[in-house]
């Protein structure tokens, strides 16, 4: 589903729907607070949660991958535990990128598993226990900030710098899983993702609200050797905010003949892909998608669709490095 437009209204000027739904938001927030307050399983190794206060896509997956790579470079055995949103397997099960598919384990765990051992577990504590037994030095929780089944040693909140915290209200009155202040009380840092203009916008709107250290980062496309300049493309994406992917392609010089925004985690059926292929042929365009969508492609289309990979980049990791050092992960 798409976010209602009133979720992005300025916090100072709530619309009618925001005001009507705010009491329901208070109920949602109280339920979230009860889940988060549970005293869960305490792991024998450090557990770092990469979560968000917003519902929907903020950039958690590239943040998990970047953090995992940073720890691997330090010689650490990094395991990721995910709930496996969209997957059918209850787990706990270690993701095998060769034998599992996105329908079984979810697209995000399947992508992350290409970088580091990844576990899917509807009960995150069970996944953490198995990761410990399998030799993990450190465990990254992909999401789960509002879930108290596992005790966290550090929590990094990821936020889209341009969208910020929307209208600052809790679902259904706004885009938040819990009030900002309550969430940040359990956070060690905020990772805001976006270009310079988006970072300035975030600072202008939320600098007084964010009471923890902040890391400014952006998603940069990898150089794959594919020449995007003036390349006619039919782009499709089923991520939290597809327009960011389309903007990246335009920034690389690609000529978007068509941009198909799909729902987040939407299945890429043969029927859908056949339609897109017919449209691409009619437009003389190359089909292109994101890494996260690519793992959901039917086998018959994996050689027909170009993938644009992106990685999280930051000029200053000192805030995160300092927290890792506190956990003995330097």
Structural class of the helices, strands and pairings? alpha/beta
Radius of gyration: 20 Å
Helix content: 25-40%
Number of beta-strand segments: 13
What proportion strand?
15-25%
The CATH superfamily name of the largest domain is P-loop containing nucleotide triphosphate hydrolases
Number of domains: 2
Describe the structure.
It catalyses: a lipid A disaccharide + ATP = a lipid IVA + ADP + H(+). Its EC number is 2.7.1.130. This is Tetraacyldisaccharide 4'-kinase. Pfam families: LpxK. Keywords: ATP-binding, Kinase, Lipid A biosynthesis, Lipid biosynthesis, Lipid metabolism, Nucleotide-binding, Transferase. The chain is of the alpha/beta class and 330 residues long. It contains 11 helices and 13 strands. The protein is 32% helix and 20% strand. The strands form 2 sheets. Strands 3-4-2-5-1-6-7-8-13 form a 9-stranded mixed sheet, with helices on both faces. It has a 4-stranded parallel sheet with strand order 10-9-11-12, with helices on both faces. The protein has 2 domains: 179 residues, Rossmann fold (3-Layer(aba) Sandwich); 77 residues. The model has no long low-confidence stretch (mean pLDDT 93). The termini are far apart.
